Amino acid sequence: MQRVLIVEDSKVVQQVLRHLASQHLQVTLDFAWSLQESMQYLARHEYTLALVDLTLPDAADAEVVKLTLAHQIPTVVLTSKIDEYSRQQMLEMGVVDYVIKDNRDSYLYAVKLIAQLLRNQGCKALIADDSVISRVVMRQMLEKQLFEVMEATDGHEALSILEAHPDIKLLLTDFAMPVMDGFELVKAVRNSRGRDDLAIIGLSGAGSHGLSAKFIKYGANDFLAKPFMNEEFHCRVMQTMEQLNLYAEIKDCAYRDHLTGLYNRRYFYQQTERLLRTNSGQHVLALLDIDHFKRINDEYGHLGGDEILRQVAELLKSAFGRYVLARIGGEEFAVVLRGYDLENAKQVFDDFRQRFADFEFALNGASYRSTISIGLATCYSHSLSEVMRAADRALYTAKAKNRNCVVSAHD
Ligand SMILES: Nc1nc2c(ncn2[C@@H]2O[C@H](COP(=O)(O)OP(=O)(O)OP(=O)(O)O)[C@@H](O)[C@H]2O)c(=O)[nH]1
């Protein structure tokens, strides 16, 4: 579990940070008022990160920063001091970043910075650079930002590492490298991995006029000219990772049903079409429709109906969470069982139908029972609409047979 130490002597600022943290951070937080209290916390716990005020009642000269850094804890400074000397001093000490308390938004910025750093933890970053010194410097900075760092000495090696580790989320690539240069690398990588999946920052040394635009046109998200200041490196990496997270959030919104949190029709079609195109094994598609759902709405109102839909989604997730599962209409859901023949799938869905009929949904302090009808079709065709039509016909038959049953299109 990630744990963050916040050291701040102002009661008001602590309250603001507590409130913002409750909205943006899902970690254990400890708040210390003083250097003394910070020492006590550090003796008791391991910390992923620290956010610390520079001046405290019992330590007016950044002693707390020295303390957290001595414990090897990546540290972000929260300060009202903005003079150039303090800034240089902090950066030389090796803090990750500093936030100046000069307006209301500073606290939100600090908390969001912590959230992004925590997201970086466990996230893989690859450095492709033939210079040992550059790799060492960048590794140190990325590790301070909590990345798990890998290294390649040329574009070709970087490409093999990226293929072997599809979970790498950030690539920093120099332009001039032996075997394969940075441009060739970015072009090759972008053939298989989009900007929403892998962030790329291009780098190049002196005399690199015009390279930045070229890197970005080939598919890099950003560019850094060497030599760079640590602070600039930090800001660009953080901004690029923030963009990547935003892409992921937008994608998730586009593919999820807001009410139940299940995937939606669009995602289901995309995934299943791909499966039918690329995988010729045996699969069974099921359409599941809650029986007489209108009666629930009539009896308990739309909000009551919504609550039942959420509980149905949980029940479905517990049974089919590892398969492609989606809410594809009002009270209609779809699942594809990969690698199942029809007989086995029938058994699985009949067990689920029975479980559903026995389940007691909780509504307004009382329990409510319902049933579900299920239509099955094997993925006999590469055309998803054909398979969907077959499963839909089977579902229609299940409804006509007095509901609460499983019917296969091939019976
Ligand atoms: N509460 C709620 N109701 C929804 C939602 N989407 C669709 N519905 C309702 O689901 C009901 C579906 O009704 P019908 O298509 O007649 O089907 P049914 O009552 O389930 O009957 P059978 O399917 O024939 O067993 C309608 O009353 C819709 O208003 C939703 O998101 N929330």
Automatic annotation (TrEMBL):
<protein>
    <recommendedName>
        <fullName>diguanylate cyclase</fullName>
        <ecNumber>2.7.7.65</ecNumber>
    </recommendedName>
</protein>
<feature type="modified residue" description="4-aspartylphosphate">
    <location>
        <position position="53"/>
    </location>
</feature>
<dbReference type="InterPro" id="IPR050469">
    <property type="entry name" value="Diguanylate_Cyclase"/>
</dbReference>
<dbReference type="InterPro" id="IPR029787">
    <property type="entry name" value="Nucleotide_cyclase"/>
</dbReference>
<feature type="domain" description="Response regulatory">
    <location>
        <begin position="124"/>
        <end position="241"/>
    </location>
</feature>
<dbReference type="GO" id="GO:0052621">
    <property type="term" value="F:diguanylate cyclase activity"/>
</dbReference>
<dbReference type="InterPro" id="IPR011006">
    <property type="entry name" value="CheY-like_superfamily"/>
</dbReference>
<feature type="modified residue" description="4-aspartylphosphate">
    <location>
        <position position="174"/>
    </location>
</feature>
<feature type="domain" description="GGDEF">
    <location>
        <begin position="281"/>
        <end position="411"/>
    </location>
</feature>
<dbReference type="InterPro" id="IPR000160">
    <property type="entry name" value="GGDEF_dom"/>
</dbReference>
<dbReference type="Pfam" id="PF00990">
    <property type="entry name" value="GGDEF"/>
</dbReference>
<dbReference type="Pfam" id="PF00072">
    <property type="entry name" value="Response_reg"/>
</dbReference>
<feature type="domain" description="Response regulatory">
    <location>
        <begin position="3"/>
        <end position="116"/>
    </location>
</feature>
<keyword id="KW-0808">Transferase</keyword>
<keyword id="KW-0597">Phosphoprotein</keyword>
<keyword id="KW-0548">Nucleotidyltransferase</keyword>
<dbReference type="InterPro" id="IPR043128">
    <property type="entry name" value="Rev_trsase/Diguanyl_cyclase"/>
</dbReference>
<dbReference type="InterPro" id="IPR001789">
    <property type="entry name" value="Sig_transdc_resp-reg_receiver"/>
</dbReference>
